[in-house]
Design goal:
Helix content is 14%, strand content 40%. It is mainly beta and 778 residues long.
Length: 778
């Protein structure tokens, strides 16, 4: 910051400009940038998957990164990221909550077997804690393919779009225009009143560029594939700004105005910033000349996407464009222990980061290995590097994917870029807020009465999470809003709740949990091709084959399966009752009321306002409770006495009772009248029937699953086919410049070419990604 102020003062003094309130504009701009990045700028999110695409029934493993707003460092603290699969109607059809700590989190999406194939979108975002409604929330989006019978390919019929460098075409001056939407290496022509004046050719990635001098009164079109597309009409006044060179050899900004331009007497500033730091600022005057060249001191800037803007002294933008100041990218060295492998053979891969400019890098990386034949028709999603430096901050006619653009081409592409956060005028108007910390790990909801009237402030809502066996009380705030903490180990659950206000129970309330909201951006459209999808065809064969071997697998893994069953039993039996009555030793009862009256002590059935009800004797008070007890029927929480009393008594196997005052304290108002724990002979019958107004489903945090791999040691499993398409997923390895990191896995039964993808981020915030290949033969 001091370096910038000294540099700015030197420029102003050398130009003979005295400091006034207007000449202090760049300093004010720096102050506002600092405010924005401290209080309002969103974090950056990136989600890295273990395969390019998936089929119905698959499990998609992924790693989520959360970076600071500048993108240079992983965040510290804890966050909950919403990860959602969205269909063409922009409906969230599959939801995940991923816990992220210190910038990294692991989880998975499990796709239903009946999920229709198609081109979906995958969005990831942070909600909760984003109180500043003017700021863009932390957000990630990419195209996401679920396979069907036919493969999907990118739609090529994208419209041509034209972007004047600096922002606008100006009459009588040399203008440069970037063109998007062309096919690789295609040629196009610029015509004036129907006469061709300029030709240009697209790059391998479909971008074109041309320069021309528009004249007053003429109509300009671009001729491409037999179509004529109009260019915007040039303005009569303004500033043309173009940039040449590169950050390694030096960047130069060329500025032009017309002889009669109103800009000739204006006090202007040329400012360049990279995220929160202005690294170049200089006063500009056209009083003597209509053209000028300014050498940009890009060496004073840190790496990243720089924003070069020409301002008036009042902060109005006359011209703007983005430039990429490329970081020193570490190379990733991937070495295999053999040139090719046999099926079911051990593979050892050594991974190492190269050093750059005397820097010995370390980093955190993910490694995934998949069969290339099944995924070669599907390009990987946006690379970590391109998302952090471009897509997360900029609006472009098409998101930059995993292509490694040259320095010149990326700067030509950036002619079309616009900042997607807020305008400079909004930036100049922002005020300090609350510094951004970890987003609150909570769900937000509202409590109302049946007519929709908000609950009073400080109304107590007591929740009991069924599977997690957790009781928690929260108080409402303004307009009945409440915040329910989302603890790290909370999975999806059903919660029963009770409501009191100043120790008085409130009946007939309505509670809703806010669903996380998102706004979709544009993604590349994919269309069905005439070719069969190789991965989908493979999965259709794989599933029945593996089912046919399920009996053998079950016998071989009997021990581990038994452990799972035991754990499930323990999970259902988590409630300690004061005593339990097993009904198998009694004669058959005529009704539930008869069971309670004759077989269960400390409990009685009675009529209340003409209806059957239950009362539990509360130990420690020497009296029966004044209200109905809480019920837990086959592990489901409910307070529906009517449902219990109407049950077939022969279905009930046991009734447990919690009636000790000291035990009931932990259950708050939910347990103040005692608790009955009922088990039946047909628990599946009651699950859906017991969903009622006093309970709700809570979307918890999805705990990461372990990726299943195989180690082919010996001949014990030769009878079982190994049909894995993805051999390995290791999302948390450390990589170094000073030594190799070994990664080991076994090949499967499939032969062909396999891809090893290594992606991650260095300790100084530079994303990296590489692909290497090996072959498996018989």
């Amino acid at each position: 910051m001091k370096k910038f102020h000294l540099y700015l003062m030197l420029l102003l003094c050398l130009s003979g400009v005295a400091f006034t309130s207007k000449t202090e504009f760049p300093v004010r701009l720096q102050q506002q940038l600092s405010l924005y990045y401290r209080y309002h700028a969103p974090l950056k999110i990136y989600v890295d998957f273990n395969q390019p695409k998936y089929s119905p029934g698959d499990t998609a493993f992924f790693k989520t990164y959360v970076l600071t707003p500048t993108g240079r460092l992983l965040t510290q603290g804890k966050y909950v990221i919403n990860v959602m699969l969205v269909n063409a109607e922009q409906q969230g059809i599959l939801r995940n909550k991923t816990f992220v700590q210190n910038g990294k989190g692991l989880s998975q999406l499990i796709f239903p077997a009946d999920l229709p194939g198609g081109d979906y979108s995958l969005v990831a975002f942070i909600d909760g804690g984003e109180s500043d409604k003017t700021s863009t929330p932390a957000y990630f989006q990419r195209s996401f393919v679920i396979t069907g019978e036919k493969s999907l390919k990118d739609e090529k019929n994208t419209p041509l779009q034209f972007f004047a460098e600096g922002g606008a075409l100006i009459e009588g001056l040399s203008n440069t225009v970037a063109v998007s939407g062309m096919n690789a290496s295609d040629e196009a022509y610029v015509s004036a009143d129907g006469n061709r004046i300029v030709s240009f050719r697209a790059t391998d990635h479909g971008w074109g560029k041309f320069s021309f001098v528009p004249e007053a009164g003429k109509q300009y079109t671009v001729e491409y594939k037999g179509n004529r597309l109009p260019l915007e009409a040039p303005k009569k006044d303004g500033v043309v700004m173009t940039v040449s060179g590169n950050d390694a050899e030096g960047l130069t900004a060329s500025l032009q105005v017309r002889e009669n331009s109103t800009m000739r007497d204006a006090e202007l500033y040329l400012v360049m910033n990279v995220h929160d730091q202005i690294c170049f600022a200089a006063p500009v005057s056209f009083k003597r000349n209509t053209k000028m060249s300014v050498s940009l001191a890009s060496k004073l800037c840190t790496y990243g996407t720089a924003r070069l803007t020409l301002f008036t002294a009042d902060g109005d933008v006359l011209a703007e464009r983005f430039i990429f100041l490329e970081p020193s990218k570490p190379a990733i060295d991937v070495q295999f222990d053999k040139e090719q492998y046999s099926t079911r053979e051990k593979v050892t891969v050594d991974i190492r980061l190269s050093s750059t400019e005397n820097a010995l890098h370390t980093g955190n990386a993910s490694v995934t290995v998949y069969r290339n034949d099944f995924f070669k028709d599907t390009a990987p999603g946006t690379s970590f590097f391109n998302h952090v430096f471009f897509n997360s901050d900029l609006s472009l006619p098409q998101a930059l994917s995993n292509i490694d653009y040259s320095s010149q081409e990326i700067n030509d592409v950036l002619i079309a870029a616009k900042w997607n956060k807020m305008t400079w005028q909004q930036m100049l108007a922002i005020t300090p807020g609350v510094p951004k910390t970890s987003n609150a790990l909570f769900l937000k909801g509202h409590l109302t009465d049946e007519e929709g009237k908000p609950a009073k402030d400080s109304t107590l809502i007591t929740f009991w999470l069924n599977q997690n066996d957790f009781i928690y009380g929260v108080y409402t705030r303004n307009n009945g809003a409440f915040y329910f903490p989302l603890f790290k180990n909370f999975s999806d659950d059903q919660a029963l709740y009770g409501v009191t206000y100043r120790n008085t129970t409130i009946k007939n309330t309505k509670l809703t949990i806010e669903e996380p909201s998102f706004v979709m951006g544009n993604t590349a459209i994919k269309m069905k091709s005439t070719e069969n999808d190789a991965y989908h065809a493979f999965m259709k064969v794989k599933v029945p084959i593996l089912k046919s071997f399920s009996y053998y697998e079950k016998k071989r893994n009997e021990g581990s399966e038994q452990r799972v069953i035991e754990n499930e039993d323990i999970a259902e039996d988590y409630i300690d009752t004061d005593f339990t009555v097993e009904l198998g030793r009694f004669k058959e009862f005529a009704s539930v009321a008869e069971i309670l009256s004759e077989a269960v002590t400390m409990v009685k059935s009675k009529k209340v306002q003409g209806k059957d009800d239950i009362r539990v004797f509360i130990k420690g008070t020497s009296m029966f409770a004044s209200g109905s007890p809480l019920l837990v029927i086959d592990g489901v929480l409910t307070d529906s006495i009517d449902y219990l009393m109407a049950m077939n008594p022969s279905m009930i196997r046991s009734i447990g009772v919690i009636h000790d005052k000291n035990t009931l304290v932990r259950y708050g108002i939910l347990g103040k009248n005692g608790i009955l724990v009922i088990t039946t002979g047909a628990p599946e019958v009651h699950q859906e029937a017991l969903r009622r107004k006093g309970s709700l489903n809570i979307k918890g945090i999805d705990s990461p699953l372990r990726f299943k791999t195989k180690q082919h040691q010996g001949d014990s499993d030769k009878r079982v086919p190994d049909l894995r398409s993805t051999l390995h997923w290791e999302p948390g390895i450390s990589v170094y410049a000073t030594k190799e990191t070994p990664v080991e896995f076994y090949t499967a039964d499939g032969t062909g070419t396999y891809t090893v993808k290594v992606s991650g981020i260095t300790e100084d915030g530079v994303p990296f990604e590489t692909y290497r290949y090996f072959k498996v033969v018989r």
